[in-house]
Amino acid sequence: MYGLRLESIAFSLGPISVHWYGIILGTAALLGLLLAVQEGKRFGLSADFFMDLVLFGVPSAIIGARIYFVAFKWDEYKDHLVDVFKIWNGGIAIYGALIGAFICGYIYSRIKGYSLWRIADICAPGLIVGQLIGRWGNFVNQEAYGGPVEESFLRNTLHLPSWIVNQMNVEGVFHHPTFLYESLWNLVGLIVLLVLRRRSFVRVGEILLSYFIWYSIGRFFIEGLRTDSLAFQGASWVESLMNGLWSPMTIVFEHGYLNPAEGNVRISQLISVVLIIVAVTLIIVRRKNGAAKEHYSDPIINYKTGLPAGVQAPEKTAVQTSETARAKIDPPQDADSSMKE
């Protein structure tokens, strides 16, 4: 049975091993890029703009994801610092990736002269594509799975193919394929975002905020099934609140095991709840105070040039440049000053 599981290494080139995890993440980033490039054309943004953004954004996301994960697992890494860099073995956190990506995105957008809201709106469907594909890296690595289930549940209830069922057999115990649940949830979310961005009522920033709402709802409930959640020791009322919000799931599922030594509150669940509240609040407040007066379909204006994206400022001729320089050196005198002389 164990021999049927997929290997984490796709192929080797001499001493160099290429892992499926890296191939899957690279594919996710590429498809997310293509989706953003295609939408960016509608607004006059070049493919190079998004290629450069990905060039800086992907490393920033990976670094942020790894820092986030290691920070909450420091006791496991402090005596093995080399393992911090072994991301091909898994151990990156999506929320950390988002933090790293958005810090990079903010800096990049400001340098280029665009609003982060506008660029993030275009990139949001690409982000969710990256996540729905990236979760299959967890599948290959046999990580981020849920609590134990019967093999019959996977085969007869979920009707999963054998190659997925076999991979969910970890040391003789079958587990919830939470990677698959989240991947399918994100697939539906992608469709929702693609439909929303063609609706005339959608304002600037609301595609991004809708992404956060959709992803966080799914992540909250799926996270409760997992057995490897990052956790902390929170107040009893926070624990009760998280368990209460998740309680509808108990009709069908059981909570995934959470090691009491690591904490009583799943960090991703708490962050999901906070993100949903913040995103909904921002949509309401930005509409009321006029911050979201622009619609998603409106032209994207470069605040450095004052022109729509893709429109180049007219170049000054040599004569115009000379006249401008002369005016700065020898400003014209008004009529009154001439008469006084």
TrEMBL record:
Lineage, broadest ranks: Bacteria, Bacillati, Bacillota, Bacilli, Bacillales
InterPro entries: Lgt
Record organism: Paenibacillus baekrokdamisoli
UniProt keyword annotation of Transferase present: yes
Name of this chain's protein: Phosphatidylglycerol--prolipoprotein diacylglyceryl transferase
Region described as Disordered: spans on this chain: 312-341
Gene label: lgt
Function as written in the Swiss-Prot or TrEMBL entry: Catalyzes the transfer of the diacylglyceryl group from phosphatidylglycerol to the sulfhydryl group of the N-terminal cysteine of a prolipoprotein, the first step in the formation of mature lipoproteins.
Chain positions recorded as a 1,2-diacyl-sn-glycero-3-phospho-(1'-sn-glycerol) binding sites: 135
GO biological process: lipoprotein biosynthetic process
Enzyme Commission identifier(s): 2.5.1.145
Membrane topology field: Multi-pass membrane protein
Primary location class: membrane
Pathways involved: Protein modification; lipoprotein biosynthesis (diacylglyceryl transfer)
Residue ranges of the TM segments: 20-37, 49-72, 92-109, 116-134, 178-196, 203-222, 267-285
A single cellular component GO annotation: plasma membrane
A GO term for molecular function: phosphatidylglycerol-prolipoprotein diacylglyceryl transferase activity
Family designation: Belongs to the Lgt family.
Cell location: Cell membrane
Top class in the EC scheme: transferase
Pfam family, one: LGT
The entry's keywords: Cell membrane, Lipoprotein, Membrane, Transferase, Transmembrane, Transmembrane helix
Comp. bias intervals (Basic and acidic residues): 325-341
